[in-house]
Amino acid sequence: MNAPARRPIDLLVHSAGELCTPTGSTARGGADLGRILCLADAAVAVDGGRIVAAGPTERLRREFAARAELDAAGGLLLPGFVDAHSHPVFAQGREDEFELRTQGASYVEIAERGGGILSSVRGVRAASKERLLEFLLPRLERFVDFGTTTVEAKSGYGLSLEAEMKSLEVLAAARARNILDIVPTFLGAHETPEEFRGRRPAYIELLLNECLPRVAESGLAEYADVFTESHVFDLDQSRLLMERARALGLGIRMHVDQLSALGGAELAAELGAASADHLEFVSERGIRALAESAVVPVLCPLVPLYLRVEREAPARSMIDAGLAVAISADYNPGSCPQQNLAEIMTWAALRYRMSAAECLTAATLNPACSLGRGAEIGSVEAGKRADLVIFSCANLRQLVSGFGSSPVRAVLVGGRVVRGGERVRRLPGPQ
Ligand code: NIG
Ligand code: FE
């Protein structure tokens, strides 16, 4: 009897020492956070930019006739990382503030002296669109270097209609380069700009009546965000802004309970936000409110350390309450200039007592769900986009205990091999 014909595919990624992935298309919390699939000597069949199958290398070789192969050579194969919180549209870094903090100044003190977010605002306003794009592109490449294949990216260092639109246009121009998948968020409510100092309500009027409608109409942002904190936007102001954003068709993400226990988590739950980010000061009540909602908590374990704030998010209590937490680098010039999610996994393990498996779900499927892309990315399963990363280490525990030190061997974005192309072998045969 003839063997059944092998199905032709574009690419077979084979010989991974271990494939680890969460499964499904919905965010996983509680005990499910750490329930992942691990498979030794694994392969992934890719066709038309999608995953066709994942399984043992030997079986997939029998089932598929690949036009090209990528040898994972015993490395660790994971879904591409999804970072659901970043602020990459800025000009210069803020190393001067880092030094002030090491000498004892606090983040809020620096902000109140006109530094912090406002110093990045001066940089963005002064830079042309072309210059901002030049700053942004290598940052996006660097996300890919570390295995991130989808990144949420916020504006928020413009704080005027013109400079915020410029930032979103720069993100759109970067998106067109297809470096990785970018999910744009409008963060005009990041701080009150200098020209509105002492007149925050007037700035809120500008956001409500001009910026938000213009952003929504432009289609340049999927989400709107707000920095809910007493020195920036309080609960009532945040509610007003987010309700308006929602009415205009934008999704909602929120910076909440980062520096004080204001009750932002409860507000995010009440509004049904896609994500509630930071949460270092979340209360018991806030955790309960989040547990009764579908809001994904996006935790940023490096930020308090970088800001020299003693408090860390009570991740273990959140997970025990059933929450489907995500972890993020929160890449930005002020509170965390780090993009390496593998390193963030180590910090999450150390600071939050999360297992390696929990860290993986929190860096892939859960952030994907917070971005409304759970059916599309976040796991290695047939039908999803072929966004993959291969690390040189042999297994997930090595990666998570290794502080981001394991070299990335290859990265695929939508089936395109964007790192590790030298490992691809084209095969002769029917085209
Ligand atoms: O996520 N919390 C507000 N936004 C950023 C920091 C922004 C900045 O300092 O530039 C954050 O930590
Ligand atoms: Fe942030």
Structure, briefly:
With 431 residues, this protein is an alpha/beta fold. It has 16 helices and 19 strands. Strand 9 (148-154), helix 6 (161-175) and strand 10 form a beta-alpha-beta unit.
Mean pLDDT level? 97
Task: Give the C-alpha Rg.
Answer: 22 Å
CATH level 3 topology of the largest domain: TIM Barrel
Largest sheet: 9 strands, mixed
Q: How many helices?
A: 16
Residue share in helix: 25-40%
What is the percentage of strand-forming residues?
Answer: 15-25%
How many angstroms separate the termini?
A: 25 Å
Tell me, what's the shape? globular
Structural class: alpha/beta
Instruction: Give the beta-strand count.
Output: 19
What small ligands are held by the chains? Answer: N-(iminomethyl)-L-glutamic acid, fe (iii) ion
Question: How many domains would you count in the coordinates?
Answer: 2
CATH homologous superfamily (4th level) name of the largest domain: Metal-dependent hydrolases
Label the CATH architecture of the largest domain: Alpha-Beta Barrel
Question: Unreliable runs, pLDDT <50, ≥5 residues?
Answer: none
State the name of the first-level CATH class of the largest domain: Alpha Beta
Tell me what the structure shows.
It is a single chain. The protein has 431 residues and is an alpha/beta fold. It has 2 domains: 121 residues, Urease, subunit C, domain 1, CATH 2.30.40.10; 258 residues, Metal-dependent hydrolases (TIM Barrel, Alpha-Beta Barrel), CATH 3.20.20.140. 36% of the residues lie in helices and 23% in strands. The chain is built from 16 helices and 19 strands. Strands 2, 3, 4, 6, 7, 16, 17, 18 and 19 form a 9-stranded mixed β-sheet that branches. Helix 9 links the parallel strand 12 and strand 13. Helix 7 runs parallel beside helix 8, helix 9 runs parallel beside helix 10 and helix 13 packs across helix 14. The protein is globular, with a radius of gyration of 22 Å. The model has no long low-confidence stretch (mean pLDDT 97). Bound molecules: N-(iminomethyl)-L-glutamic acid (NIG) and fe (iii) ion. The site of fe (iii) ion (FE) has 5 residues, from loops.
